[in-house]
Specification:
- This protein has 218 residues and is α+β, with helices and mostly antiparallel strands.
- It contains 2 helices and 12 strands.
- The strands form 2 sheets. It has an 8-stranded mixed beta sheet with strand order 1-2-3-9-8-11-12-6, with no helix packed on it. Strands 5-4-7-10 form a 4-stranded mixed beta sheet, with no helix packed on it.
- It is elongated.
- 24% of the residues are buried.
- The structure holds copper (II) ion.
């Protein structure tokens, strides 16, 4: 009897090692995690799932190459789905660092803290689902790893008509706090410029004279 209990206890404590853990709305393994995966629970204001939308979103350094001052972003940053749609997100991380697809503003009674998240610790991909409510609204998508949002990893998902565009989305909306590099020219700047032009003109006139006088000697 004692050995059977010990065996059962052993099975109980080791079983999570052999499978991806799923607790408290979180599915995780050694590659990453999905938080608040919801393929079937309907929001209160939806009678049924209106459509299935499969989106593939890639995140990485290379997508920000053409954006000065930015470092990471998603390959597409603007999405639109119909109210009560089930969104099946395949998030692909193309970098060897941690990135997330995190969406905010979902109903708190279904999604703790109103969030759905896919996180990948390095290169790889994961697929998870969430069902959006019926109201027209623009949801905020970003990567929460320190400085990644500021460095370009930000997007939006419009449900129905949405509720306007969010700020600071690369290629879509103006930054809230633009990078400015003001140049404060004073009177001295202009004086220095005029002085340089005069010296330059003087040298241009003087230098050819120096060369020709040397070469013209018999
Ligand atoms: Cu990131």
């Amino acid at each position: 009897m004692k050995s059977i209990s010990l065996f059962l206890f052993f099975c109980f404590i080791t079983s999570p090692v052999f499978a991806a853990m799923n607790h408290g709305g979180m599915i995780m393994d050694e590659k990453g995690m999905i938080m608040n995966h919801n393929p079937d629970k309907l929001p209160k204001d939806c009678k049924e799932i209106s459509e299935d939308v499969n989106i593939t979103i890639r995140g990485g350094h290379k997508f920000a190459k053409d954006s000065p001052g930015k470092m990471f972003t998603y390959d597409k940053r603007d999405w639109q789905v119909s109210p009560c749609a089930r969104v099946n997100v395949t998030f692909i991380n193309e970098d060897d660092i941690r990135h997330q697809f995190m969406i905010h503003g979902l109903p708190g009674y279904m999604y703790p803290k109103g969030m759905f998240t896919i996180e990948l610790y390095g290169k790889g991909q994961k697929t998870g689902s969430f069902i959006v409510p019926s109201r027209d609204y623009t949801y905020y998508i970003h990567c929460e790893v320190s400085q990644h949002t500021e460095k370009g990893m930000k997007g939006q998902l419009k449900v129905g008509k949405g509720s306007g565009d969010l700020d600071s989305i690369l290629g879509l909306s103006a930054p809230l706090t633009p990078d400015l590099y003001p140049i404060n020219n004073t009177h001295y700047t202009w004086l220095a410029l005029i002085f340089s032009i005069i010296i330059g003109a003087f040298l241009i006139r003087l230098l050819p004279g120096l060369f020709t006088s040397k070469h013209s000697e018999p």
